[in-house]
């Protein structure tokens, strides 16, 4: 079995997507549609913008979505997954690529998601931190015992967990986690507490948009972040998508679930190789590859 997996925020880089843009007339048409939907020329920023310009949430999320979904389209018959999954933002890319959502609807939701998250970030000073070298349950216990809002947000791979919350609470938790034996507890250069209760205003805003979006049965199961379970039921997919912004990304659990399902290879569709590296952290013998135009 083969899983096709889609990266989230942080995978962007200047020049991303230019190769598929130049190679495919269909992709160029998609970028023209994206310009109309977003109200700005995202191709110009993706291909010629600075790293700083690409880091803006309102640009980053649509850019990664476009790169991922259009690469899946450009792969044509080579895009034949038995299961799909996406890390955070990547879940929207996975749903569109697997036929559960129209391209235009997916892009509108991703744009709304980015704007809603940015607004929530500006409302409350908040941040995230990477914790390396501790068991998940130890990190969870420290977060529970720390005053203020701080929670486990991204279960990226064994021994690598990201926490999220109010700035003082995250700082206090980092100090406690270092005392508890973490190899590193490193504050991240992000402007908000993604996948935490502080994203509730963004969750409500995005949920309203998701409620009005048509979701079809995907052509294969999608292992969703919230449950780390393979889903095909459209009502369940919608509920999980609505819960995603305030719930943790259970990527470690999702990788284990895909392996339990019999997945023997993961193909990363989109910019970067972050997810390929995370699979290797689970099992270094596991086969990983990157999606490519005209891949066999």
Quick description:
The protein has 296 residues and is α/β, with parallel strands linked by helices.
What is the strand and helix layout of this fold?
Layout: E1 2-6, H1 18-23, H2 25-38, H3 42-48, H4 51-55, H5 57-75, E2 83-86, H6 90-97, H7 103-123, E3 126-132, H8 136-145, E4 150-157, E5 160-166, H9 167-179, E6 184-187, H10 200-211, E7 222-223, E8 230-231, H11 234-243, E9 249-250, H12 251-260, E10 265-268, H13 274-282, E11 287-290
Parallel strand pairs: 1-2, 1-10, 2-7, 4-9, 10-11
Antiparallel strand pairs: 3-5, 3-6, 4-5, 7-8
Helix pairs in contact: 2-5, 2-7, 5-6, 5-7, 6-7, 7-10, 8-9, 10-11
Q: Any overview of this molecule?
A:
The chain is of the alpha/beta class. It has 2 domains: 2-122 and 197-290, 3-Layer(aba) Sandwich (Malonyl-Coenzyme A Acyl Carrier Protein, domain 2), CATH 3.40.366; 125-187, 2-Layer Sandwich (Alpha-Beta Plaits). Helices cover 49% and strands 17% of the residues. The chain contains 13 helices and 11 strands. The protein has helices spanning 18-23, 25-38, 42-48, 51-55, 57-75, 90-97, 103-123, 136-145, 167-179, 200-211, 234-243, 251-260, 274-282, and strands at 2-6, 83-86, 126-132, 150-157, 160-166, 184-187, 222-223, 230-231, 249-250, 265-268, 287-290. A 6-stranded mixed β-sheet has the order 8-7-2-1-10-11, sandwiched between helices. Strands 6-3-5-4-9 form a 5-stranded mixed β-sheet. Strand 10 (265-268), helix 13 (274-282) and strand 11 (287-290) form a beta-alpha-beta unit. Helix 2 (25-38) crosses helix 7. It is globular, with a radius of gyration of 18 Å. The mean pLDDT is 93.
């Amino acid at each position: 079995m083969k899983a096709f997996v889609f990266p989230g925020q942080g995978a962007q880089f200047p020049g991303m997507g230019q190769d598929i843009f130049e190679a495919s007339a269909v992709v160029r048409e998609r970028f023209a549609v994206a310009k109309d939907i977003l109200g700005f020329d995202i191709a110009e920023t993706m291909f010629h913008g600075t790293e700083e310009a690409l880091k803006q949430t309102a640009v980053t999320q649509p850019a990664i979505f476009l790169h991922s979904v259009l690469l899946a389209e450009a792969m044509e018959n080579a895009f034949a997954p038995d299961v799909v999954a996406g890390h955070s933002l990547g879940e929207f890319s996975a749903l569109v690529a697997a036929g559960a959502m129209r391209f235009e609807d997916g892009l509108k939701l991703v744009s709304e998601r980015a704007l809603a998250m940015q607004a929530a970030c500006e409302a409350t000073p908040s941040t995230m931190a990477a914790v390396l070298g501790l068991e998940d349950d130890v990190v969870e216990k420290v977060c529970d015992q720390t005053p203020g809002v701080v929670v486990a947000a991204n279960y990226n791979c064994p021994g690598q967990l990201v926490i999220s919350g109010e700035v003082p609470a995250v700082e206090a938790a980092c100090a406690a986690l270092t005392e508890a034996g973490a190899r590193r507890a490193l504050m991240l250069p992000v402007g908000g507490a993604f996948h935490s209760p502080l994203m509730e205003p963004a969750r409500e805003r995005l949920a309203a948009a998701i409620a009005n979006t048509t979701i079809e049965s995907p052509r294969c199961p999608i292992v969703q972040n919230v449950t780390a379970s393979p889903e095909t039921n459209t009502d369940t997919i919608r509920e999980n998508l609505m819960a995603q912004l305030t719930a943790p990304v259970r990527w470690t659990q999702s990788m284990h679930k895909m392996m339990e399902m019999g997945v023997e290879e993961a193909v990363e569709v989109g910019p970067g190789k972050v997810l390929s590296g995370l699979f290797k952290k689970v099992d270094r013998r596991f086969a990983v590859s990157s999606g490519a135009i005209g891949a066999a």
